[in-house]
Automatic annotation (TrEMBL):
It comes from Niabella ginsengisoli. InterPro entries: ABC_transporter_ATP-binding, P-loop_NTPase. The keyword Nucleotide-binding applies. Belongs to the ABC transporter superfamily. Keywords: ATP-binding, Nucleotide-binding, Transport. This is ABC transporter ATP-binding protein.
Length: 145
């Protein structure tokens, strides 16, 4: 009900904190549809969440803030072009990654995108890469056009 009220106010800036918490699968889907329908050029919706998977189709910019300090701030498009998110069996590639995590089928890694192909972003892996190795990750975005 509060989400409906917030959207009905039609404010230029709307801040939501964990809006999908407590919603079931169908309600989350409906929430995404409502938010997508409310977005336009004159409106900024800022969503603070730990449930990134619930909202990844709505996000156009990622900002990671820790204790008032901005650790990372980039558009989805830029992240996708500069970083690679994939499963790797290559030891050298895994060693060079900004972040790696063992998985059943190799290592899931966040690395520099050297091929220039857009990569599907894994928001949870991106967050872990920033928190554990943010300075190195951010060097990829320095001097960007």
């Amino acid at each position: 009900m509060l989400i409906s009220f917030a959207l009905a106010c039609n404010t230029a800036i709307l801040l939501m904190d964990e809006p999908s918490n407590g919603l079931d699968i169908m309600s989350k889907s409906q929430f995404r549809k409502v938010i997508a329908g409310a977005i336009d050029e004159n409106k900024c919706i800022i969503i603070s969440t730990h449930q990134v998977k619930d909202l990844e189709s709505l996000i156009d910019r990622i900002t990671i803030i820790d204790e008032g300090k901005i650790l990372f701030d980039q558009t989805i498009e830029t992240i996708s072009s500069k970083l690679s998110f994939k499963v790797s069996f290559d030891d050298e590639e895994t060693k060079a990654a900004f972040y790696k995590e063992e998985a059943l089928k190799g290592n899931v890694i966040v690395g520099k995108n050297d091929t220039g192909e857009d990569s599907k972003i894994d928001l949870e892996l991106l967050y872990k890469a920033i928190v554990t190795n943010g300075d190195d990750v951010n060097t990829v975005f320095k001097n960007q056009p």
